[in-house]
What does this fold into?
Amino acid sequence: MTAPGRRSSTFTRLLRHGFTDPSAAERLLDSTELAPVRDDPVLLEALGATADPDLALHGLVRLLEAQPGPATARRELLDTLIAAKPLRDRLLGVLGASAALADHLIRHPRDWEALVTYEPRDLHPGVEEFERGLAEADDPVSLRVAYRRCLLSIAARDVCGTTDLAETAAELADLATATLRAALRIARAAAPDDAALCRLAVIAMGKCGGHELNYVSDVDVIFVGEAAGDAVDGADEGKAIRSATKLASHMMRICSETTVEGSIWPVDANLRPEGRNGPLVRTLASHLAYYQRWAKTWEFQALLKARPVAGDIELGEEYVAALEPLVWKAAERENFVADVQKMRRRVVENIPVAEVDRELKLGPGGLRDVEFAVQLLQLVHGRADISLRSGTTLDALHALAAGGYVGRADAVQLDDAYRFLRSMEHRIQLYRLRRTHLVPEDETDLRRIGRSLGLRADPVAELTREWKRHTSVVRRLHEKLFYRPLLDAVAQLAPGEARLSAEAARERLVALGYADPAAALRHLEALASGVTRKAAIQRTLLPVLLGWFADSADPDAGLLNFRKVSDALGKTPWYLRLLRDEGAAAENLARVLSAGRLAPDLLMRAPEAVALLGDGDGGGLDPRPRAHLEQETLAAVGRAENALQGVTAARGVRRRELFRTCAADIVGSYGTETQPAEADQGALVDRVGGAVSDLTAATLAGTLRAVVRDGWGDTLPTHFAVIGMGRFGGHELGYGSDADVLFVHEPREGVGEREAADAANKVVSEMRRLLQIPSADPPLLIDADLRPEGKSGPLVRTLKSYEAYYRRWSLVWESQALLRAEPVAGDEELGRRFIDLVDPLRYPAEGLGDEAVREIRRLKARMESERLPRGADPKLHTKLGPGGLSDVEWTVQLLQLRHGWAEPGLRTTRTREALAAARAADLLSGEDAATLDEAWVLATRVRNAVMLVRGRAGDTFPSAPRELAAVGRYLGYSPGHVGDMLDAYRRTTRRARAVVEELFYGAAGER
It folds into this structure.
């Protein structure tokens, strides 16, 4: 029995050597198996040096118990362990890092002898050495045992620090190569007839092809087959490919299937042409035809790693040689960079939310970010520089830095981060030999990983800190890596350091989507050159901004506009500080400047509006309430000396708020790195329509106040009101909409009708004139054509005149137009009385008669045939085309005219509200209502997009490719998918037209 004092001393020693359960460790040390070496200090020191001393000690006892035969075998192991430091370090290192390899040693207790030899040739074995280690394997089970024995030696060198990360990954790839060859050898031996008929080459892809494999990973392959030249029966190509497919399938099963010794790893052939839907084996000609015609960008990216490893190596080399020219032309493909970045985003989006922060490989700042960035640069510059054509990430990164394609300091940081993250990944996988990239949450696991990486003081805290630090470095550099060298090339602040040549910079900009790389380089030089604080901040901002510009349909415009804004605001102290310090401002600005013409044009007229893009108290893109807008506008008018100055001030407020609305719409439609795009398209439409309508109403109120004050002082001789009509009255104005209005007045007590009418007409005339005067602010066109008698009637009438006209002469189309009437400015009481006057017209008691319904249908049919512009594609015309705005609005308005008298919910000027009310009243089905709503929202979004992109209103999709692509980006379509956008528009409006045919023209309309 151990004395209490001695136990206490041993207990303390065990704690000091890193054991977490000293009591259990003490019992194991007192076991019969370890009796001969119980007091040997060498053993305790060696155990304390492992990643998990408790695990290592437990594994050692199990291994001793498993030794076969008499006690001499156990004694041999112990004697060698104490006497031979290399074995001691290797064996205990493996036992302390990998429970799975400990289990292998228990099943095969003499395999520890593989760790005894310490010859120079054992330090860095290659494919030949591993092939010798697998040579005697002649079935799947013996192959697994031999594979694990070789893996044991790789792990031993790794955990002892004999090999670094790159060497370990290369050895794992070489072992995989030898294993594939052994598996193919077994498959050939099982089917010699098939083997004789064909040539079969195994091309390694992914990390195996790149000579940088993990401990546990799918081994990605592609198979190439041909008929054997000496086939004695003259087998045709089809028969040879069938034979090759049998051999390839058998080879995959040998590696992948689970046996009593487990499996090796899955062999994944899904990178082949057409993926899992394509044939497993193709001829070289078939591969070439596919890549020449059908392959996507990511497939050429994957071919960067292609390397023949097994089977007919000559055929494999022919495959690589045939496809290599196509790989290095991939960067010339349209939307090349966007395609690669979209693939990366898709990978991140598919990570479960609960796992994204623990994902070493796929998460933000993870290994895939490094690999994608390096591969992107290789594809862009490897066309002209063959030194970049390496399948190994770290080798390629070194070559990129040596050539000036990546800054040297950035490359060093990225290399360090990649090595650390890959080492973490290796240690995580090594423990159970399971394929995972998730950082464990259990503290024991984290402690073991931290200690295995040399973090001994506080392994868990140090590991977490280092992991987060390296992830942060990758996040920061992953975008910067692509753009920073462009700035170094033009700024030239570090003489003697390798930098991009002019041609390489041009190549990179073209790959990013810049149509005029020479101009882009001039802009970069103007922004980033020099040693001023302003230039230094620009050099910090531009790498990220360039990435956001490249994510748009027009990077050239984004960069040019940024230069213009910077030139205008560069001397203001807050501008660059806003972009640098407020997280949202820089990205919001980049989105706004590259999304089209309207927002940048508004901004250039008052660049200080950039402040709205920040996320501080002074900014914000939320629309302002109408009351606040009207209050600010009236206050600005009140400070003016005359009507012209007052209206100029009101138009200035309108310009700024239009910019706010445009910016919010663009940011909401594109999304940001921290906030996804708004999923509810209807909400975006309602927000824009409401904001622009409120802004227009406030502008009219301010203009009215300015005109009245300038001509009559505080009081106009007549009460005066402005009635919003059309999309204005419906709170649905777009960026390019005119303001449809009616003007109504009523003489004040004691004022003659002639004097009142002259004053009212003068007010209308002056309002229209002042709002259209050419200036830096966008004009506001007032359209009063919906008034009684149209363009032939007076611009303004008294309320009595309206009443007389509507009682005697009103036509059904005027009742329909009045459905949108809503007071927007002027005398509120007069506006309410006007609405009371027209309510019986727009919501007639008992609804419309049959003749009135037929008249509306005739008007609609005539409008469809006469008003569509010549040469326009009807199916893509958002206003008059089938299923477009007119179709939906007339259908809803017919329901309002027929049922508004009985259904209070229909008494609204807003199309979507009326549609929802009609659905609630069972006047149409939920499906039909959703179809009409979707089409109306989409058509409105297209009109808004056209105005944002082109800077002028339009009802059809633009024909210029860049403008069409920009509309697509606004609507959520990634680059290269404008065809999908147009198809979706036609499909949506076609469904809506079918509903319109039924509800507006058909039997259902007779309800």
Summary: The mean pLDDT is 91. The chain has 44 helices and ten strands. The two ends are 100 Å apart (CA to CA).
